Amino acid sequence: MSARTVPAPAVRTSRWFALAILCAGQLMVILDGTIVNVALPAVQESLGFSSSSLGWVVNAYLIPFGGLLLLAGRFGDLFGRKRVFVTGLVVFTVASLLCGLAQNTTALLVARFAQGVGGAVTSSVTLAMVVTMFTEPGERAKAIGVYSFVQSAGGTLGLLLGGVLTRAVGWHWIFFVNVPIGVAAVVLAQRVLVAERGTGRGRGTDALGAVLITSALMTAVYAIVAAADHGFGSARTLGFGLLALVLLAAFAVRQARAEDPLLPPRMFRYRAVSGALGTHALMISGLFGFQFLVVLYMQKVLGFDEVETGAAVVPVPLLVGVMSLFLAPRLIGRFGARAVLPAALALICAGLGILGRIPADGAYLTDVFPATVPLGIGFGLAMPALAGLAMSGATPQDSGLASGMFNTVQQVGASLGLAVLSALAASHTGALPHDGASRAEALTDGYRLAFQVGAVFVLGALVIAVTVLRTSRRATGDASAAGPASSRAPEAGTPSATP
User: Fold this and answer.
1) Residues 295 and 375 in one domain
2) Are residues 171 and 232 located together in one domain of the fold?
3) Region 264-278: what's the mean pLDDT?
4) Residue 73 lies in a domain
5) What's the half-sphere exposure (Cβ side, CA atoms, 13 Å) at 12?
């Protein structure tokens, strides 16, 4: 950035305040993905969910969330990212209130679906707004570090808050807590964020492409989450999986022929973008099961309660915070994202490898805590690097779409990884008692296998990082995490009275 384009101190301050607002909205959405998990037994007892239907308290949120991220991100480019972000916050906040007020299963599931819609709309444009607000390389690296901390640590913090709120004031408050935060975020966003006009509809909005990709992603997420109940080899899972592939193929054909495609092919011309998305998908698939399966291990094998379990995973978000906020921006600025990423993935592999050796008679300090250190450090370094690389091919006009792609890959990868690893653990555990193994030993063997397979997924991500992302020159997305057109990105986040 040239000297004449450097923002004044007051403008700089307002941009960091705008970042805080964006991250507050994103944190609500990320927390909601895990905060419910700890409260499920209380929800089941209160509203009378059956064991088979209880999982839909989570799935009703995941399906629209995973299915709408890409479309909502594109809408941000077309109609203005501030407008899309605020709309998502409003929907999410109202839906959170309705979740807390729900008195029966149907009301809660409908409200959870609406929450998923609002969460997708909010999340889809957040990263895009971050990279267009901060165009100076050093500041952008720091801003992406803050965003990455929220993304990576929010889920773990949700486990802690879920247990505390459920035990202290009841499960309704895991939803009510979103309401004042959401209202404040909406009011402040209207005052602080810049209203962008967007690129407009051009030759059209590619309505057919929008229907195809949204249907494909929702169907894919449904097939993945339903596999936990019906099995990956069931006719239902395979049928919906095949339907998702057909819809994706039809979407690809549509994009090749449309005059103004929803997902322009140019988005995949940069190796940094394609490689980062592939790496991100495998890393999340292998790692996301950690915050689910390690909780089960501590509760079912070590005998921890909800609050103890939440406290036990606190080292992960703390380390993620230190890495994302302080160390990652400096390392990426000095060595480049491509150099930092392999080391981060190697640390994650090491952490999962440690968990792949947990014993049935283990203890937290000797068997779980040692894994949280490399996992927290590795994830805290990997997320800022991946976020910067994934946005490196986006022009200001496409940054919402790139943001939606990054979050879609994360959500689908998380759903797929959790479903696969949970199914592996359950099936392996189910086979062991016939051989005379105790319940604790059988459970632990299943968790060990899941962590080992998760480490293999992350190892695959490492292979992509050192091959596809390898380059002899310092790429655009390395030091600054900036795209090829980032220097032309408009300043955002300055005070504006425009709604």
Assistant:
1) yes
2) no
3) 83
4) yes
5) 8
Give me the half-sphere count of Cα atoms (radius 13 Å) on the Cβ side of residue 98: 19
Q: What is the pLDDT of residues 442-486, one digit of tens each?
A: 999 999 999 999 999 999 999 999 999 875 344 444 434 434 434
Q: Cα dist. 10→14, 15, 24, 188, 493 in Å? A: 6, 9, 21, 17, 11
The answer to whether position 498 is within a domain reads no
Q: What percent of the chain has pLDDT over 90?
A: 41
Q: What is the dihedral of CA 55, 61, 66, 69, to 10 degrees?
A: 180
Q: What is the CATH number of the domain that holds 394?
A: 1.20.1250.20
Mark whether 173 and 212 lie in a shared domain.
Answer: no
Q: Are residues 274 and 355 in the same domain?
A: yes
Residue with tokens 């790692």: 287
Tell me which amino acid residue 372 is: T
Distances (CA, A) of 364 to 69, 88, 313, 452: 37, 40, 10, 19
pLDDT tens per residue, range 399-452: 888 888 998 898 888 888 888 888 888 888 877 765 556 888 999 999 999 999
CA 415 to chain centre: 10
Domain co-membership, 434 together with 362: yes
Is residue 159 within 8 Å of residue 35, measured between CB atoms?
yes
Matching residue, tokens 């992509």: 464
Residue with tokens 């309505």, as numbered in its chain: 207
Same structural domain, 373 and 316: yes
The answer to whether residue 494 is domain-embedded is no
Residues 297 and 155 grouped into a single domain: yes
Which domain does 299 fall in, by range?
Answer: 9-205+262-488
Scanning the structure block, which residue is given the tokens 């705008």? Answer: 18
- Give tens-digit pLDDT for 129-169: 998 898 888 888 889 989 988 887 777 777 777 777 888 88
Q: Residues 247, 352: one domain?
A: no
Q: Domain count of the chain?
A: 2
